[in-house]
Write a structure and sequence with these properties.
alpha/beta, Rossmann fold, GMP Synthetase, Chain A, domain 3, 3 domains, 9-stranded mixed sheet, 8-stranded mixed sheet, 24 helices, about 25% strand, binds 2-acetamido-2-deoxy-beta-D-glucopyranose, AMP-dep_synth/lig_dom
């Protein structure tokens, strides 16, 4: 840690004085212009009320009225995704709908370390209008019919996020064919399981993923048709997939459909729209059945959260097999907001596939809205932090001063336009400079990441809560909501119930706020699990004419009606003296530390403290080693060095204290693990959630050693 020189301290003091004087003079102007009392009133506005309660449950409902478009859909009976899509096309016909960047070339680029990397040379976004998207989807659906598929026959979509994904899905919906979605990162076994269970004969995939089917097809005898979304640069190799399987380019299906005279076969609201395989953290993946009605209602639930503008643009890069992305893209289509497709490898100017000196997707598209998951947001937060830490001490001090100043004034209801447009402008520019809000879902976002991104990106980061089983909809923050670590109020499509959980010590009578297991009931709650009646009965139930889902998450409702996720039923371990350690909560906090690439906390109920399995960030581990005069070069050597383990544990414990973890929550022993945990290794799910049991089994020896 470098400290400030006397001269720098003097400069900093001077700057502080100037700011104080400036604030003193301009404060009345800001007070009159910005009306902070109104902003503060909006923050604490009531979002939900408790309708009824019993001895062990309390039920909350949103106080927001349904939106105009929601009312209109009810009146006009727009109750299937097919009708929603048709409505959008009628409304926005010639507007840009889906944009894909043209790939001009792939080139080798010499890296500073002498290695060669493949980089893309990308052109502008090429747009399909709503009308074009619609007629392409229509053709695709008819093409499937020409190829012998019937309505109500399941079709698997197994591909990365791209325009053709959404178009094929819409094409299937026009023929009432349920689409089965599987994550592109799933392991072969899970893919075989999904294809087998849904008995499909047709799989839509991409040229990049196609070779995977050489191993998969022998185990899925019913598959006879592979439709491949082409790679614009490489020729498609159709060999090696056996005689019984035809491999057809996507464009060929469109051509067949163009010539076809088959009519559509329209779905009804109760027909299955999607069977979405979630990568469960235990056992094989489960297919969640979503009807058209479910998806439409989930979408409509989101329509009264904020207003959209004519110039809004959305950047898509999360997997479309993730319900959050699928629902959000459907919403943007409904409102006529153009969707530009990106990938994590080409998003910013610095992304790994972008040729040096050329522009990343965000700089070209300049999106106003993005959706994200904590995994990605934590990474952005860490990289900003690293930049600042790595710079001169004076920059760091100035940056921290600005953060503190801005947070202070935003808390009081003021805006800081000058800091927004000077100091934080370069950070905003990384994502195109026009961002209006960021949606975050999929897992709890650490309050520290939340705060830092909100401040540096200069726009609200709206955290939401929802599950595949509720079609991504349950609660979401609105732009007026300034809280951290909470997930906003309930959407209009569902009720949220808290149910006391005695063993976990969470009760609805708790003070100051009721706490308990979250149950969700409404028209957005999925029908159940595909071909798993027992599992469905365990987790879904009917009550007072509503369909309910038990989430297993523990929540707390604040006075304003904000839901906060505080725990997870399964993750709770009771230590020897009776304290409860929430493994997930501890991991979320520790993951913010730059040394941590991934971490799994384990707590033995017969012991007094938890221990940690930690996959370190190599660069940070190495610089920690250098600082302490340890000279080892490979990650394996570093990880097995006892001194390193001690150093990292020390850093982690310091961090834990800073995050205000309780003493019994802080790991007292640690093992450094040199292998990155990927879905292929089976240690994390395709959505990068820990598979605790597998991790524990794999590292059993290390765990035993840490406790001995
Ligand atoms: C407060 O909230 C209302 C309703 O959402 C909105 O119309 C109004 O513009 C907000 N006021 C401020 C100052 O943000
Ligand atoms: C496919 O499903 C059948 C039952 O539907 C089952 O008997 C078989 O073992 C499954 N095969 C694989 C490879 O999962
Ligand atoms: C294959 O198709 C047949 C006939 O449609 C069906 O009975 C069988 O269950 C299917 N098997 C698998 C593994 O999908
Ligand atoms: C400044 O940033 C905050 C979020 O950090 C945002 O709410 C506010 O609208 C921004 N103000 C201006 C004038 O850009
Ligand atoms: C943010 C938003 O769109 N709010 C609307 C919710 O619905 C009511 C009733 O239709 C409108 O008055 C709000 O403006």
């Amino acid at each position: 840690m470098t400290s400030l020189k006397p001269m720098e301290s003097a400069i900093l003091l001077l700057i502080r004085c100037i700011i104080s004087i400036y604030t003193f003079i301009t404060w009345p102007i800001y007070f009159i212009l910005q009306k902070p009392w109104k902003i503060r009133a909006n923050r604490s506005r009531l979002r939900a009320v408790s309708l009824t309660h019993g001895d062990d449950f309390i039920l909350y409902r949103s106080v927001t009225e349904i939106s105009d478009v929601h009312a209109r859909f009810l009146q006009d009976k727009i109750d299937t995704m097919e009708k929603v899509f048709r409505f959008a096309v009628r409304q926005h016909g010639q507007k840009c709908a889906l944009g894909t960047r043209e790939i001009l070339a792939e080139e080798d680029e010499m890296q500073p370390n002498g290695r060669m990397f493949k980089k893309f040379l990308l052109g502008d976004f090429q747009w399909r209008t709503f009308t074009q998207t619609d007629s392409e989807a229509e053709s695709f659906g008819r093409g499937l019919r020409e190829l012998g598929l019937r309505s109500r026959e399941n079709v698997v979509v197994f591909a990365e996020t791209r325009a053709e994904w959404l178009i094929s899905a819409n094409g299937c919906m026009k023929q009432n064919m349920p689409i089965v979605t599987l994550y592109a990162t799933l392991g072969d076994d899970a893919i075989i399981h999904g294809i087998n269970e849904t008995e499909v004969s047709c799989v839509i995939t991409s040229q990049e993923l196609l070779p995977k089917f050489k191993n998969i097809l022998p185990c899925t005898p019913n598959v006879t048709l592979l439709i491949v979304m082409e790679d614009p640069l490489k020729p498609l190799d159709l060999n090696g997939y056996g005689d019984t399987v035809s491999v057809l380019p996507y464009q060929e299906v469109i051509r067949l459909g163009d010539l076809s005279s088959k009519s559509g076969c329209l779905p009804k609201p109760e027909d299955t729209a999607i069977i979405m395989y979630t990568s469960g953290s235990t056992g094989s993946p489960k297919g969640v059945i979503m009807s058209h009605q479910n998806v439409v209602n989930a979408m409509l639930g989101y329509t009264n959260v904020t207003t959209f503008y004519e110039n809004d643009v959305y950047m898509a890069y999360l997997p479309l097999a993730h319900v959050l992305e699928l629902i959000s893209e459907s919403i943007w289509m409904l409102f006529g907001i153009p969707i530009g497709y990106s990938t994590p490898l080409t998003m910013t100017d610095k992304s790994s596939k972008i040729k040096r000196g050329s522009q990343g997707d965000a700089s070209v598209l300049r999106p106003t809205i993005i959706a994200s998951v904590p995994l990605v947001l934590d990474r952005i937060h860490k990289s900003i932090q690293e930049k600042i830490e790595g710079g001169p001490a004076i920059t760091k001090a100035l940056f921290n001063l600005a953060m503190e100043y801005k947070n202070d004034w935003t808390d009081r209801g003021y805006e800081t336009p000058i800091i927004n447009t000077t100091l934080f402008k370069p950070i905003r520019a990384l994502l195109g400079g026009r961002l209006r809000f960021v949606l975050s879902g999929g897992a709890p976002l650490a309050p520290e990441t939340h705060k830092s991104l909100k401040t540096t990106l200069c726009c609200p980061v709206l955290q939401g809560y929802g599950l595949t089983e509720t079609c991504a909809a349950t609660t979401v923050m609105d732009p007026d909501d300034n809280s951290l670590g909470k997930t906003g109020g309930p959407l209009t499509c569902c009720d949220v119930k808290l149910v006391s959980w005695e063993e976990g010590n969470y009760r609805i009578k708790d003070w100051p706020n009721p706490r308990g297991e979250i149950h969700i009931g409404g028209t957005n709650v999925a029908v159940g699990y595909y071909k798993q009646p027992e599992k469905t009965k365990e987790e879904f139930y009917e009550e007072n004419g509503r369909h309910w889902f038990r989430t297993g998450d523990i929540g707390e409702f604040t006075q304003e009606g904000f839901l906060q996720i505080i725990d997870r039923k399964k993750d709770l371990v009771k230590l020897q003296y009776g304290e409860y350690v929430s493994l997930g909560k501890v991991e979320t906090q520790l993951k913010i530390n730059p040394l941590v690439e991934n971490i799994c906390i384990y707590a033995d109920p017969t012991k007094l403290f938890p221990v940690a399995l930690l996959v370190p960030n190599f660069d940070h581990l190495k610089s920690l080693a250098e600082k302490n005069g340890i000279e080892l070069s490979t990650i394996e050597e570093l990880c097995s060095h006892p001194e390193m383990t001690k150093l990292v544990l020390g850093e982690l414990q310091k961090h834990a204290v800073k995050c205000r973890l309780q003493k019994f929550e802080i790991p007292q022993a640690l093992t450094l693990i040199p292998d990155i945990w990927t879905p292929d290794s089976g240690l994390v799910t395709a959505a990068f959630k820990l598979k605790r049991k597998t991790v524990q089994d794999r590292y059993k020896a290390s765990i035993d050693r840490m406790y001995s």
